[in-house]
Amino acid sequence: MSSFAKKITIFLVLALFTTCLTGCNSHTFAETENSLIVSAKELTDYMGKENVVLVDMQSPEDYGKEHLEGAVNIPAESIVINVPVKNMLTSKKKMESIMSASGISNDTLVIAYDTDKMSASRLLWSLFMYGHENVKVVDGGFETIKAAGLSITDQVPSVTEAVFTAGEPSSEWLVDSSRVLEQVNSPRDNVILLDVRSDEEYYTEGKIPTSVMMNFTGNFFADGTFKTTEITKINYLENKIYPEDEIIIYCKTSFRAAPVFVQLYEAGYRNIKLYDGAFLEWSSNSDNPVEMPDGAAAPSKKDAS
């Protein structure tokens, strides 16, 4: 490419970026005073502090091999129940039991990390659901923690049991299948059904009608860290998803939906909810419509019990 062509290309990219920023400024994004995302380097400001509990979301086996020094283990599978379908929000009683046994009280700042870009965010959303919003996730998860040179161990820390009292599940962050069906049958312009599964899943399984497809992987840089809030705003505005909208996020079981919840919240979106039953629950009901790509055959119905 010639020098002149390069200059033209750079100019066009900058012009597009400026246009997108102007679009961002025409919408009202909430201020996120306390970030939900903490970098691995910032963890040293929290480690060993009173009323702070670091949570490792790995399986017990992987946790036993290595974890951040001082971190307690809350495996992802312990914060879900598998009825009526897989990976539903766990009960209030179980959440209270798990948090209390992990040394987490209602005054505790919870900082969680994972190895899959999903589990820590799922814990965050689950705590939000029960009224505990003093929680953060580690940007990039365990890999960035190790890359930052923080102390890694296989020793299990001693835990002093606490008392965690959960609130009633909040409708602020959750919808059920009846609410989704209502949107499908009578679409409202300011409500977005956001499907964060892959295109391949859409091609083979279909989607909930009217849903916007945006793969959850698009919220991350190649190193697994979250994209900046500025890039996030641009990406979602380009897809006509505005902070004034009600955004209902789902994937297969709404685990991938959780980091999208975190990223949108961080970027200043607030009217965001998870459809917890997700596509697994939706597609298990033969009465629910499924939209397939043009020319694709409808999938056979599966029992999700």
TrEMBL record:
<dbReference type="InterPro" id="IPR036873">
    <property type="entry name" value="Rhodanese-like_dom_sf"/>
</dbReference>
<dbReference type="GO" id="GO:0004792">
    <property type="term" value="F:thiosulfate-cyanide sulfurtransferase activity"/>
</dbReference>
<keyword id="KW-0677">Repeat</keyword>
<feature type="domain" description="Rhodanese">
    <location>
        <begin position="187"/>
        <end position="291"/>
    </location>
</feature>
<dbReference type="InterPro" id="IPR001763">
    <property type="entry name" value="Rhodanese-like_dom"/>
</dbReference>
<feature type="domain" description="Rhodanese">
    <location>
        <begin position="48"/>
        <end position="154"/>
    </location>
</feature>
<protein>
    <recommendedName>
        <fullName>thiosulfate sulfurtransferase</fullName>
        <ecNumber>2.8.1.1</ecNumber>
    </recommendedName>
</protein>
<feature type="signal peptide">
    <location>
        <begin position="1"/>
        <end position="30"/>
    </location>
</feature>
<dbReference type="Pfam" id="PF00581">
    <property type="entry name" value="Rhodanese"/>
</dbReference>
<dbReference type="InterPro" id="IPR051126">
    <property type="entry name" value="Thiosulfate_sulfurtransferase"/>
</dbReference>
<keyword id="KW-0732">Signal</keyword>
